[in-house]
TrEMBL record:
SUPFAM superfamilies in alphabetical order: Trimeric LpxA-like enzymes
GO molecular function: N-acyltransferase activity
InterPro entries tied to this protein: Hexapep (IPR001451), LpxD (IPR007691), Trimer_LpxA-like_sf (IPR011004), UDP_GlcNAc_AcTrfase_non-rep (IPR020573)
Protein keywords: Acyltransferase, Lipid A biosynthesis, Lipid biosynthesis, Lipid metabolism, Repeat, Transferase
Protein's UniProt name: UDP-3-O-(3-hydroxymyristoyl)glucosamine N-acyltransferase
GO cellular component: membrane
Protein source organism: SAR86 cluster bacterium
Amino acid sequence: MFSISLGELATKLNGKLEGDKDKIIHQLQDSQKCDSDSVCYIKSHLYIQKLSSSPGAVITTADLAKEIDANCIIVEDPYFCFALATGIFNVGYEKLNKSIESDIHPSVKLGYNSVINPNCKIGANVVIHDNVSIYPNTTVGDNCIIHSGVVIGSDGFGFAPKNNQWQKIYHLGGVDIGDSVEIGANSAIDRGVLGNTQLEDGVKLDNHVHVAHNVRLGANTAVAAQTAFAGSVNVGANCQIAGHVGVTGHLSIVDGVTVLANTLVTKSINKPGVYSGIMPMMEHNESLKFVAKLKKKSE
């Protein structure tokens, strides 16, 4: 198990420690789930109310630390330092993955040039077609079909800006895929940053679907081609998402929602039903005026 003292971690992050420098930390966790052996980060007052009851340490600013009853590493930019911390903890993440042999059911059919990395569990009667790549820390349930060119468990798209450059956020989670899931050709399911990306039982993905880090797709939801879910989207059960739909990050969609083709979902959907949002292309300023007129007419 990876371990680092708070004193050493603070030094690596170029931060000031307020607390026990000898305390040993084993994991980097989400602030809502952070336990006494882990460290998390808080970048605004909004997250303090949801902070777990006994975090091992918190990476935060001097002002926010005044409201937190825990060991704190004081930094100017908590999000950037969180990105740095993922690189530190990634050393242990990769070492752990390499040490765990994958559990592959004897009935699995593995296509040509497909790769299952260490620390994976593949259930019974799974068909994996040619040229599939399954990264470590992935679980696939029974009776699944994974078509050619699929990538499961790759890094999500995460970078923290600093001085006109980008600091990579290493993804320390995994992917959980339920039973009877089918994933179309050349689709990509990214692993979670902290915690896992989830495809529940019966999910069906068409070709060229992108599922970003920490997305949850509820049971029996079907998604057509060229649809993309940004990070941390939560989609309910029995939804139908048509082709070329975009869903922006951190939104929720309740059970029983249908989204028609070419729709851009920019806010959570809290009521079951059929939704669409198709507009012709125009200059952006004209588009804003058009939307304003539509809203005015509907009032």
